[in-house]
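Incident review: delayed structure delivery

Summary: a single-chain prediction request sat in the queue longer than the usual turnaround. Root cause was a stuck worker, restarted by the on-call engineer. No data loss occurred. The affected request and its eventual output are reproduced below so the record is complete for anyone auditing the incident later.

Affected input:
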Amino acid sequence: MANVLKHLPELEGMELGYIQGILKNMDDEQAGLFAQVYRARRKDSQMVLILALLGFFGFAGLHRFVLGQIGLGILYFFTIGLCWIGTIVDLVNYKSLAYEYNIKIAHETLSMMSSTNSSDTDQNTAPSHEA
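Output delivered after worker restart:
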C-alpha cells in the first residue's frame, strides 16, 4: 500500500482521500508513476480561483477553458460570464470545479496506466516468431 502523502504531499481535503483510495492497491513504483502523471495534469484550485477572478476584468471564462470546458468558456467569454452571475457562482464553487476536474484526470491516468501495463504484458507474453 502506497502512502499518498509520500508521493503527492500537496493534496488536501476530499482529493487527498480520493487519491488515497486509488493508491491503496498500488506498490510504491506504480504509485510513483501515477503521481508523476497526475501531478503534471491536475489543476490547482487556487489557479482556478485566480482565473475566475479575471472574469471581472474582461477575461471571463478563462477558468472554464483551463478546466477543459471549451463550450462554457466561449459562452462565458461572449456573455461576460453570463452577466457576471456565472462568474460569481464559479467563484463560490471553485474548489468543487477543480476537484471534479482532478477526479476526471485521476481516472484518465489510471486507464492510461492500465492500458500501458496490458500492452507491456502482451509484448512480454507474445510468442516470438524469430527463427
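Verification: The chain has a mean pLDDT of 88.
Action items: add queue-age alerting; document worker restart procedure.
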